[in-house]
C-alpha cells in the first residue's frame, strides 16, 4: 500500500481510526493518572490538577478537595499536578504559594507543607510515582481476567498443520501434525506461544521438544530472520520457523499442484486429494502474490465434506487434526493466573525486542509513533469490541512498562532519584536533577520525533 492509498484509507475512516485511537488513549491516560491521583490522596498530598490532554483548557470543574478536573486542547496524553510542584513533571518544587492580590510568593504554611508533594517522606513520593505504571498493569490484568471469564481465552493448539517448503522447519525435520511441547524448556500451550517465541528469536538457535504421535523428539533449529510489511507499509523483523497454524484451511481452487502435478479442473484436483488423505504429500498453493510449497497430511476424519457437494465445506481442505481454535472459559482464579502470565509474557517480549534494537539485531525503524498506533487502533475497531479491548490491554501494559524506564521525566526516572536519595541519605542536588530532566526531555522528544518520522518515511518510500 503506497502513501496515497494509506492516506485514502485513513482519511476515509477518520472517525473510526482517529476516534478509536483518541478514545483508547484517553482511557489509558485517565487510568495512569488516576493511579497517581488516588495514591497521592491516600498519602495526604493535595492534587491541584487532573488533566486529560495538554494546553488550553476546553472544559473543567473543581471538586470539593480543590482539584481541577479538565479536558485540554491537545488530547495526546495527560497529567496530574501535585501541590508544591512547579510543573506536572515534578521536575522542580515551588518555594511557596502566589498571593492572588499582589502576585508575591508567600512561604508555605505548616498546614500547606503537610500537603505538599516535595515535603513527603521518600517512600510516599515513590508510592505516588509508582502507582501510575502499576495501575496500568492492574488495568490490563483486570481486562484480560474479565475476557477470559466471560468470553473465554482463545487457544489455538500448538500443532503444525503443515510445513512450509524450504523453511527452517522443513530443513530441520518438522512434520505435519507435530505438537510443540516446549521451546528452550519453556512450556508451549498454544500456537500463539510459538509465534511469540519466534518473533523474538529472530535467527537464534532454539531447542524444540516435539510430540509426534506419542513419541518425544528433540529438534534444534534456527528460525529464518525475515522482514514483514503490514497493509500500511510498516515493517518489522521476526523469526520464521515455517509452521502453518491449525487455524488454516485451503480452498481447493487455490491449490496449483499435488506432488508437482497440475490438474485440469477442480474436480480432478479433488479426486487426487481424496486418494492422498491420511498420507504426507507436497502441494503448491497460491498465497496472495506468491506460490508456496507445503508439506501436508490431511486426515479423512476431518475432510468428509470433500465427498458431499451439498456440504458448505465442499471446496475446503482441512489440514489440521485438531480444532482450529478453542475458547477456554476460566473461573476467576484461573482467569487471573492466565492474565498475569499473558501480561508477563508481553512484558518480557517487549523488553527482549528493545534489547535486540539496542544490540543491533533488530532494526530501530520498527519503533512506531502516533500514525502506526492510530492505524492499529482502527484495524482493531474494524474487528470488533473484543479486539479493541485486547488492544487496550496491550497498550496499557506497554504504557506501564515504558513509564518505568529509568529516564528522567518518566516515572522510572523519579524512582531512580528516590533510590539515590535513600542510598545517599539526602535528595540529589537540584542542579543535577535539572540537568538530568533537560537531558531526559531531549531524549524523549528525539525518540518521539524519530518514531513518527519512521511512520512517515515507511509510508512514503
What are the salient characteristics of this protein?
single chain, 461 residues, alpha+beta, Pdz3 Domain, 5-stranded antiparallel beta sheet, 12 helices, 19 strands, 45% helix, elongated
Query: Which ranges are low-confidence, i.e. pLDDT below 50, for 5 or more consecutive residues?
Result: none
What amount of the residues lies in strands?
15-25%
Q: How large, in whole angstroms, is the Cα Rg?
A: 27 Å
Helix-strand category: alpha+beta
Major beta sheet, specifics?
A: 5 strands, antiparallel
How many helical stretches? 12
State mean pLDDT (0 to 100 scale). Answer: 82
Provide structural commentary.
With 461 residues, the chain is of the alpha+beta class. Among the domains are: 3-43 and 120-146 and 373-460, no CATH class; 159-242 and 321-328, PDZ domain (Pdz3 Domain); 249-319, Pdz3 Domain (Roll), CATH 2.30.42. The protein has helices at residues 3-12, 14-42, 110-115, 122-150, 168-171, 191-201, 266-276, 332-359, 370-383, 385-403, 411-424, 430-460; strands spanning 47-62, 68-82, 96-98, 105-107, 153-155, 162-164, 179-183, 186-187, 206-212, 215-221, 224-229, 235-240, 243-244, 249-251, 255-258, 281-287, 290-296, 316-318, 326-328. The strands form seven sheets. Strands 13-6-17-16-15 form a five-stranded antiparallel β-sheet, covered by helices on one side. It has a four-stranded antiparallel β-sheet with strand order 8-7-9-10, covered by helices on one side. Strand 3 (96-98) and strand 4 (105-107) form a beta hairpin. Helix 2 packs across helix 9. The protein is elongated and about 90 Å long.
Amino acid at each position: 500500500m503506497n502513501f496515497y492509498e494509506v492516506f485514502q484509507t485513513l482519511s476515509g475512516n477518520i472517525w473510526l481510526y482517529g476516534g478509536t485511537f483518541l478514545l483508547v488513549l484517553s482511557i489509558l491516560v485517565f487510568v495512569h493518572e488516576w493511579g497517581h491521583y488516588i495514591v497521592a490522596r491516600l498519602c495526604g498530598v493535595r492534587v491541584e490538577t487532573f488533566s486529560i490532554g495538554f494546553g488550553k483548557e476546553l472544559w473543567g470543574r473543581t471538586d470539593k478537595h480543590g482539584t481541577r478536573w479538565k479536558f485540554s486542547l491537545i488530547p495526546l496524553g495527560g497529567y496530574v499536578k501535585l501541590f508544591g510542584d512547579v510543573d506536572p513533571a515534578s521536575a522542580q518544587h515551588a518555594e511557596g504559594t502566589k498571593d492572588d492580590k499582589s502576585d508575591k510568593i508567600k512561604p508555605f504554611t505548616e498546614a500547606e507543607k503537610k500537603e505538599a508533594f516535595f515535603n513527603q517522606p521518600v517512600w510516599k513520593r515513590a508510592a505516588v510515582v509508582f502507582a501510575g505504571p502499576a495501575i496500568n498493569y492492574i488495568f490490563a490484568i483486570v481486562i484480560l481476567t474479565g475476557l477470559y471469564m466471560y468470553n473465554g481465552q482463545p487457544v489455538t493448539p500448538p500443532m503444525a498443520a503443515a510445513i512450509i517448503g524450504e523453511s527452517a522447519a522443513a530443513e530441520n525435520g518438522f512434520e505435519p501434525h507435530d505438537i510443540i511441547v516446549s521451546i528452550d524448556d519453556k512450556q508451549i500451550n498454544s500456537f500463539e506461544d510459538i509465534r511469540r517465541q519466534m518473533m523474538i528469536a529472530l535467527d537464534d538457535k532454539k531447542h524444540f521438544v516435539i510430540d509426534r504421535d506419542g513419541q518425544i523428539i528433540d529438534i534444534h533449529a534456527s528460525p529464518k530472520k525475515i522482514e514483514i510489511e503490514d497493509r500500511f507499509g510498516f515493517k518489522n523483523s521476526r523469526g520464521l520457523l515455517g509452521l502453518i497454524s491449525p487455524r488454516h484451511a485451503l480452498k481447493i481452487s487455490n491449490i496449483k499442484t499435488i506432488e508437482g502435478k497440475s490438474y485440469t479442473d477442480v474436480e480432478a484436483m479433488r479426486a487426487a486429494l481424496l486418494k492422498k488423505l491420511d498420507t504426507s504429500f507436497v502441494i503448491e498453493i497460491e498465497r496472495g502474490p506468491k506460490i508456496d510449497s507445503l508439506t501436508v497430511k490431511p486426515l479423512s476424519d476431518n475432510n468428509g465434506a470433500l465427498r458431499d457437494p451439498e456440504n458448505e465445506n465442499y471446496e475446503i481442505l482441512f489440514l489440521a487434526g485438531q480444532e482450529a481454535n478453542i475458547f477456554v472459559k476460566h473461573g476467576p482464579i484461573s482467569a487471573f493466573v492466565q492474565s498475569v502470565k499473558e501480561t508477563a509474557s508481553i512484558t518480557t517480549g517487549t523488553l527482549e525486542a528493545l534489547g535486540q534494537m539496542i544490540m543491533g539485531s533488530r532494526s530501530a525503524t520498527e519503533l512506531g509513533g502516533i500514525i502506526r498506533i492510530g492505524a492499529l487502533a482502527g484495524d482493531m475497531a474494524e474487528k470488533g469490541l473484543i479486539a479493541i479491548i485486547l488492544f487496550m490491554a496491550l497498550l496499557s501494559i506497554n504504557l506501564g512498562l515504558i513509564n518505568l524506564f529509568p529516564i528522567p521525566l518518566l516515572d522510572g526516572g523519579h524512582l531512580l532519584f528516590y533510590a539515590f536519595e535513600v542510598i545517599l541519605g539526602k535528595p540529589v542536588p537540584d542542579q543535577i536533577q535539572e540537568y538530568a530532566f533537560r537531558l531526559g526531555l531531549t531524549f524523549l522528544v528525539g525518540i518521539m520525533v524519530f518514531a513518527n518520522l519512521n511512520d512517515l518515511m515507511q509510508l512514503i518510500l
